Amino acid sequence: MYRFELTVTDNSGATATDIVQVTVLPAPNQAPSADAGADQVITLPTNFRTLNGIGNDNDGTVVSYKWTKINGGVATIVNSVSSVTPVNNMVEGVYRFELAVTDNGGAVTRDTMQVTVLPQPANTAPTANAGNDIVVVLPNNSTTLNGSGTDPDGTISAYRWIKITGPAGGQITNPDVAQTTITDLLEGIYFYQLVVTDNAGATGRDTIRITVENGVANIPPVADAGADATIYLPDNAISLAGTGTDVDGHIIRYQWSVVAGPVIPTLTNQYTPTVQVSDLQQGVYQLELIVWDNLEAFHKDTMTLNVGSTRGGTTQGDVLDELSIFPNPVGERLTVNIRTSEVNRRVKITVFDIQGNRRAQKYLLLTQNVNVNQLDVSTLTPGSYFVQMVSQDKPPVVVRMIKQ
Known about the structure:
The protein has 404 residues and is mainly beta. Helices cover 0% and strands 57% of the residues. The protein folds into four domains: 33-118, Immunoglobulin-like, CATH 2.60.40; 129-213, Immunoglobulins (Immunoglobulin-like), CATH 2.60.40.10; 222-308, Immunoglobulin-like, CATH 2.60.40.10; 319-403, Immunoglobulin-like, CATH 2.60.40.1930. The N and C termini lie far apart (113 Å).
């Protein structure tokens, strides 16, 4: 506070005085600024974040900071009185944190920021890779499996090798590692499966094939469909006994099928050496037996089954036409070859799909004992079909066709 005195004097020498007082007040305090930082988003299992606050005071100094959780689930503010602090142990949800900044004049400014904690996404299963198929040639009887596993959203926590199929032997040295050794292998085919487990317990699987060869060229097996047979209606079923032999291994699989005939009969136990054929109708059938050995080599054999209308002779209608087709498999045009003992008559050629739907049809006039014609099959989709020939007073004849 200041006091000032003023004295005035006139022309006669008289004086007068007066006093004025001036009070000088201090400048008003300006509040500090507070910045709690940008909003943040995290995804579990990450459950922590660092809060980066800033405080400034244009006319003094910042003397204290204070972080407070305004809303949200459980969380731990590690150092609430520092401008920068980690926040730990957050759970799924939305948090708001407040930063209070105090200056040397006691003024306080506040700012808030938001942390959004998203739920952990669904676990993606890992991928197993058992490696490329392996061929081992005896007398070498061991090999190494080089497996691996990847997990796009975690880590691989465990490996496990399992023998699926194969001959005796083929021991896994250590089944619980990605790379292991197989020992004591014998001739034949083995399948091993690699199972990988990720950190969330999900699994992925892959299989590898190991072919163990004898060191000499494999000799294919021999199929024998048995001798041709004849039955007469009303008997419409027969049991056919085939065999398969393999001089340098063993037979692992059989399969019977009907490749030609007036109808497709019922096959029972068609994947065994002995098949039961039933629901036969009059006509001539061709049945095929395929056998595979332990190295997947195969051989085919066919037999002819004649089904007559009556026992003790044939009639004019029992003399069957012969139908053959080529090429088979076929591309765009199919050659139809018909052998007959009766000429100057018409037959109907029909192509059926495996559901029995008619897909193509053509009428032919048989003018000689051997008749060759073309059938356009270019519009058919790839798959299996049946070509049927029908003529008056004769049973139908059916052959199987494969369209490429």
